[in-house]
Amino acid sequence: MHHTLPSDFISVRETNFSQAEEYLQLCAGNQQDGAVVSFVGLVRDFNQHSQVQGLTLEHYPAMTEKSLREIVAEVRHLWSVGRVRLIHRVGSLQAGEQIVFVGVTSQHRGQAFQACEFIMDQLKTRAPFWKKERDNTGEHWVQAKQQDQQKAQHWYHQKHPHHIR
Amino acid sequence: MIEVLFFAQLREQMGHDKLALQNAFADLGALRQYLMAQHREWQSYLAPDNSLAAVNQCLVDDSHPLHAGDEVAFFPPVTGG
Question: Where is the composition biased (Low complexity) (chain A) (predicted)?
């Protein structure tokens, strides 16, 4: 069991991150957890419109970090996880650049895998970020996908997500 | 006073990033209906199917009560991650 509640690291920023550095932060001095799961999201060069050169990420500054903290608090209610690190970039990004990092540790892998995916699924439907893609025809707001909504909701239809390993 | 913020595509469609309203509204739904009645185009931009809403930075539905000093935001379904 985790006897002290570790602090969650949540960062919304323009600057890039290093997955290697984040991994070290998740592991350093943490010998109680046997699993580290991390996810990195990148800017694709092909999406709803043709050749995407890059995108601008707009957000609602007063709400963004608050909504991410709520998601992480929910994770801690549903799963027994150790450390959580969550970084989301905003501003102008080029194709191929990193957008989002989620890292979760837990004693056993099942909890960390599920918690990491839950954070991404909820972030995509609840955190106030909006992408505007740039291609050679101009700029286009990315439209939300119905399947993301379904993916975020399916967690609540499992009776006991923390019992699934 | 109630401050109303708009983000992303909705901000561009509305032509405003914020409005300050002196009126009192019982709940979010009443404010939404008031705004939808201001301009023909706003009717569809602000329809519940096309937009999400937050009161004091929390996602809520139309039955959420409103009070003077609340910060209300309308925005399109989110697309981060």
Answer: 143-153
